[in-house]
Design brief:
mainly alpha, globular
Length: about 210
């Protein structure tokens, strides 16, 4: 029988993956979807999938596959072969585009703040990316990322399971270096990708 915490994982995974697609599709059908936003979404999806999600899901190098690290119920409701896809969609939509939207709103300039390097924008994006990742590790995937369950080495997780100190603990749940590295490295990449497509769209619109 599915526990409340397992239900929460299933709901959050599918919601964060699918809702951004619905929003983007709705904007596209209304001809209100900027090309830069679509390009950022697709590029972020590919980088996250190839950068770590595929590696973590299948345990491609020196790590445990996701179906070994979690309960059988979760394996049934989020099959391993779509686990990386759902996570990558959430990375690109809820986290990537969500962080860009939040950054623009907080600075009162929407996407125009990404026309050039801005330390304030980068700092907000960094805090958002790291904070959500810590939240996920503490409240969502804590059982899959606990001590003794190794995540694979990945291009955007180069420390691998070999250099993985515990950074801190919260209610007996551990936050490790290896679990945080992907979004620490992904933040400047996301910022650069956003700047590139926003500036390109602006130049093409002249």
């Amino acid at each position: 029988m599915m526990t409340f915490e397992e239900l929460r994982v299933v709901v959050v995974v599918y919601t964060t993956a699918i809702v951004p697609i619905i929003i983007l599709l709705n904007l596209y059908l209304k001809d209100q979807l900027p090309r830069s936003i679509l390009n950022i979404y697709l590029t972020t999806f590919l980088i996250c999938a190839l950068g770590w999600e595929l590696w973590f899901t299948y345990g491609l190098y020196a790590g445990d596959p996701v179906d070994i690290r979690r309960s059988e119920i979760l394996n049934q409701y989020i099959p391993k072969n779509i686990n990386w896809l759902m996570n990558s969609l959430a990375d690109a939509g809820t986290i990537g585009l969500g962080g860009i939207l939040l950054t623009g709103k907080l600075l009162g300039s929407d996407r125009s703040v990404f026309n050039h390097w801005n330390i304030g924008a980068f700092s907000i994006l960094l805090v958002w990316c790291i904070a959500q990742n810590i939240f996920v590790e503490v409240f969502l995937y804590y059982d899959q990322l606990s001590v003794g369950k190794d995540l694979s080495w990945a291009p955007l997780a180069p420390t691998g399971p070999w250099i993985n100190p515990i950074l801190f603990q919260f209610n007996d749940r551990t936050i490790t270096l290896h679990g945080q590295i992907p979004w620490l490295l992904m933040t400047p990449i996301l910022y650069k990708v956003t700047m590139y497509f926003v500036v390109r769209e602006k130049e093409e619109g002249r």
